[in-house]
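Quick one, probably user error.
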């Protein structure tokens, strides 16, 4: 028997666990409940049904050196099927009869093997991807036959020997890392006003000459369309966006989405204003900001040529808030300039924004006397 070891695509961690995940603990037929464990949110427990027997199946893993044979149609949806855990003996998924899975993704990982043991069809729904990652293997001889068919939707995508007429062989699938697929990513999250870069990350047989169709939803009725492989988008406002891309080779397509967050850039809505105060009387500067969580007030003692950070103490309070108090300033602070740096360290928009500068004017208090006034006191 001859197998091809292939590479491409990014591995999915088998150790990730979510409620409704299944894993193999023995070899046998897919519908044999005793070969499965299910994750209940706390621990792995014995399954009371096989994956896809009822609704609620999440990710399914064939691992531990076990072999699982599929010989029937599984009617309920699976999130994904992963064959191979990258350790120990080979993990096997056999197609033993006409069968199907309702999943959008089948992945052969390192240490995994998928093999047709009968001249039968294995079907996936329209838009599904069959991915072969580094260290995974797809059998190409048992012996090879055009009757061993991978069907996606209603289309025969691949047969073991290809059989011409634009149908890919299992060898083509191996060489290309799977069926045609996209795995969209972006440079998000970004700040409002920054450029968004989208990447379709195509793979699989037929992807080199594929076409692309992007669409999107977002705030305020936002919509978008593009036929570029990797679109570049500007002018986005704050909010949450979903970009969806479909790749097609003219016969088979695959659709995936990526979520993008555009964070509002920090800004100073109300700038600090010039303040006048008397010597020994507190002076106050304040701002109103948006999308900011960090503040740093600065002072210039040379008419704006240089600024330095200030901190709370005997001279100032509120130096890292929107409201700065200059405590009982003396005449030396007359003409000092104050400004604040505003940023949002909790988001991608962490480049500080500088407010306008405001001037502190300190006046000396004047004493009014009445020495020139003569008071007359009347007798009782």
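Nope, works fine. Designed sequence:
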């Amino acid at each position: 028997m001859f197998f091809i070891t292939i590479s491409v695509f990014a591995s999915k961690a088998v150790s990730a666990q979510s409620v409704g995940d299944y894993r193999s603990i023995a070899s046998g037929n897919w519908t044999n409940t005793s070969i499965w464990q299910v994750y209940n949110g706390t621990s792995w427990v014995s399954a009371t049904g096989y994956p896809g027997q009822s609704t609620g199946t999440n990710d399914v893993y064939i691992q531990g050196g076990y072999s699982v044979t599929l010989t029937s149609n599984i009617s309920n949806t699976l999130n994904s099927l992963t064959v191979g855990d990258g350790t120990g003996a080979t993990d096997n998924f056999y197609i033993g009869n006409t069968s199907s899975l309702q999943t959008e993704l089948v992945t052969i990982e390192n240490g995994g093997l998928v093999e047709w043991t009968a001249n039968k069809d294995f079907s996936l729904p329209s838009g599904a991807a069959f991915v072969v990652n580094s260290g995974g293997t797809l059998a190409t001889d048992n012996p090879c036959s055009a009757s061993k068919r991978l069907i996606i939707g209603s289309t025969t995508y691949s047969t073991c020997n290809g059989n011409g007429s634009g149908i890919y062989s299992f060898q083509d699938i191996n060489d290309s890392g799977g069926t045609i697929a996209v795995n969209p990513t972006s440079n998000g999250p970004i700040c409002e006003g920054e450029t968004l870069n989208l990447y379709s990350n195509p793979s699989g047989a037929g992807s080199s000459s594929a076409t692309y169709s992007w669409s999107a939803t977002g705030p305020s009725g936002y919509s978008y369309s593009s036929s570029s492989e990797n679109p570049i988008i500007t002018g986005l406002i704050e909010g949450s966006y979903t970009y969806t891309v479909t790749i097609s080779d003219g016969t088979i397509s695959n659709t995936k989405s990526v979520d993008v967050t555009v964070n509002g850039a920090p800004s100073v809505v109300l700038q600090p204003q010039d303040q006048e105060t008397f010597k020994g009387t507190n002076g106050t500067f304040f701002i109103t900001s948006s999308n900011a969580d960090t503040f740093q007030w600065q002072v210039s003692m040379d008419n704006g040529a240089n600024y330095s950070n200030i901190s709370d103490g005997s001279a100032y309070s509120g130096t890292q808030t929107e409201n700065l108090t200059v405590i009982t300033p003396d005449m030396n602070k007359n003409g000092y300039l104050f400004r604040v740096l505003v940023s949002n360290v909790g988001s991608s928009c962490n480049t500080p924004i500088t407010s306008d500068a405001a001037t502190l004017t300190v006046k000396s208090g004047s004493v009014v006397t009445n020495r020139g006034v003569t008071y007359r006191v009347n007798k009782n």
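Residues 267-363 form a domain with the Immunoglobulin-like fold (CATH 2.60.40.10).
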